[in-house]
Design a protein that fits this description.
Blueprint lengths: L29 E6 L4 E8 L1 E10 L2 E5 L7 H11 L4 E5 L5 H4 L2 H4 L4 E5 H7 L17 E3 L2 E6 L2 E7 L9 E5 L4 E3 L20 H14 L5 E3 L8 H23 L4 H6 L16 H15 L5 E2 L1 H10 L2 H14 L4 E2 L2 H13 L3 H14 L4 H13 L3 H14 L4 H9 L6
Parallel strand pairs: 4-5, 5-6, 6-7, 11-12, 13-14
Antiparallel strand pairs: 1-2, 2-3, 3-4, 8-9, 9-10, 10-11
Helix pairs in contact: 5-6, 6-8, 9-10, 11-12, 12-13, 13-14, 14-15
The protein binds zinc ion (ZN).
Length: about 425
């Protein structure tokens, strides 16, 4: 199984919503607890890097903002239950990235989950025109603009800031405590980051940071997804670094410099330490680059957008015809990259549409006959259908094209065949 995940540039910061692809070692997971006020705690979910969560603990029980990684769910739950006697009654998600919603399914057993409506869509794996699917831990209460919760004696105000880091970013304001959780709209101590391929926008992200500085009390404590807490002055300095360095990078891109040219130059040498955290200098330059491509309309629409519409409304035969047609007549308008059809195939498998998935993987084999991965995916589809002979044939082809494909080797051995 190879579910390629885009270009991988931003995946170290926020992996895509996906629950079954990584096996975690729970022994690596840990929690660090910091008390912020008499009832608010910051719990850092540590697993290599760390993700901040906030808990309100008091007479109403426990409210948790963000659930961290799947592998830290058990120590996080233990730590929360040590802080107070009550149940975890509510969970709020700041946005859709899996390091913030990764343990939703665990906490959904005792809590109601609240988020922006986009987070529910993303959690349920809505993929262009393919509707979402039921998954434990999907938010049950959603909102568009703002929502107030009253818990442990204070108003907790949730405010949506559109389309910056992701499409469904919210700020969680503990009004009496003067604590403002900004999720990943701010990467304190690092360069900013926007998930542009999934609807984020870098300019918006920086504008939202400016708006946050104006919207909340000057003496508030700003807690963010992965870095140290900030006061308003530090947030202003962070915004200044983001704005200044993105302009510098942008100027170089407009002069025709490549991403590698910019990284090899000493353009960002004055901000070296800013690239040493979860958003590296390379990731920051890539983010500005993607924003530039988006604004200059050089980022083509995924072919999966029209294909999923055709599959849903007319069926796979029409979709295959449409693909051939668009590839001949509109090659510039759509992205026909290998990963597009590969991802679509797996999204169809997730929905039990194995026949449709097989046709899509076959299309990818025809389009990328030299790639080992396309044969591997097709072999997997045959294996799911119980057609072991074809599964073996395509795993062998995959190995021919890519002898380093250890997955194909493992699958062949599972199917009772060894590499020739
Ligand atoms: Zn994020």
């Amino acid at each position: 199984m190879k579910r390629l995940l885009g270009t991988g540039i931003l995946l170290s910061v926020f992996s895509l919503v996906s629950f079954s692809q990584t096996e975690y070692d729970p022994s690596e997971a840990g929690i660090s607890v910091v008390q912020l006020t008499d009832k608010l705690y910051k719990l850092q979910c540590i697993s290599g890097t760390y993700t901040n969560t906030i808990a309100s603990v008091g007479e109403d029980g426990i409210l948790l903002v963000d659930t961290g990684y799947p592998q830290t769910s058990s120590p996080l739950s233990d730590a929360l239950h040590k802080l107070g006697d009550g149940n975890i009654r509510m969970v709020i998600n700041t946005h859709e990235h899996s390091d913030h919603i990764g343990a939703n399914a665990v906490f959904a057993q005792e809590a109601i989950i609240v988020s922006h409506e986009r987070v529910r869509q993303a959690y349920r794996g809505q993929y262009f025109a393919l509707p979402g699917i039921d998954r434990p831990g999907a938010p049950q209460v959603v909102f568009k603009d703002s929502l107030s919760l009253y818990f442990n004696g204070e108003e907790i105000r949730l405010q949506h800031y559109p389309g910056g880091h992701t499409l469904g970013d919210i700020v969680v304001h503990f009004t009496d405590s003067k604590v403002v959780f900004v999720g990943d709209m701010v990467f304190a101590g690092c360069f900013p980051s926007a998930d542009i391929t999934r609807g984020g926008d870098l300019n918006r992200c920086l504008e939202n940071t400016g708006q946050i500085i104006r919207d909340y009390p000057t003496d508030a404590l700003f807690v963010n997804g992965h870095g140290p807490d900030y006061r308003a002055e530090q947030l202003k300095a962070y915004l200044d670094v983001g704005t200044t360095t993105s302009r510098l990078i942008r100027n170089e891109i407009e002069k025709g410099q490549s991403m590698d040219d910019i990284i090899a130059s000493d353009l960002l040498s004055s901000w070296k330490e800013w690239g040493e955290g979860v958003v590296s200098e390379r990731e920051w330059v890539a983010c500005v680059y993607r924003q530039h491509l988006k604004e200059t309309h050089q980022q083509a629409t995924s072919i999966c957008q029209p294909l999923t519409e055709a599959i849903v409304t007319a069926g796979i035969e029409d979709a295959l015809e449409l693909y051939a047609n668009l590839k001949v007549h509109h090659p510039e308008k759509y992205s026909f990259a290998e990963d597009e059809l590969n991802t679509l195939g797996y999204r169809l498998i997730d929905r039990g549409r194995i026949g449709d998935a097989t046709e899509i993987f076959k299309l990818n084999v025809a389009a990328y006959p030299e790639s080992g991965n396309v044969y591997d995916s097709l072999a997997e589809a045959y294996m799911i259908q119980g057609d072991n002979a074809l599964a073996i044939e395509y795993y062998q082809k995959s190995l021919e094209k890519d002898p380093s494909n250890s997955n194909a080797e493992a699958m062949l051995s599972k199917l009772g065949h060894k590499k020739n």
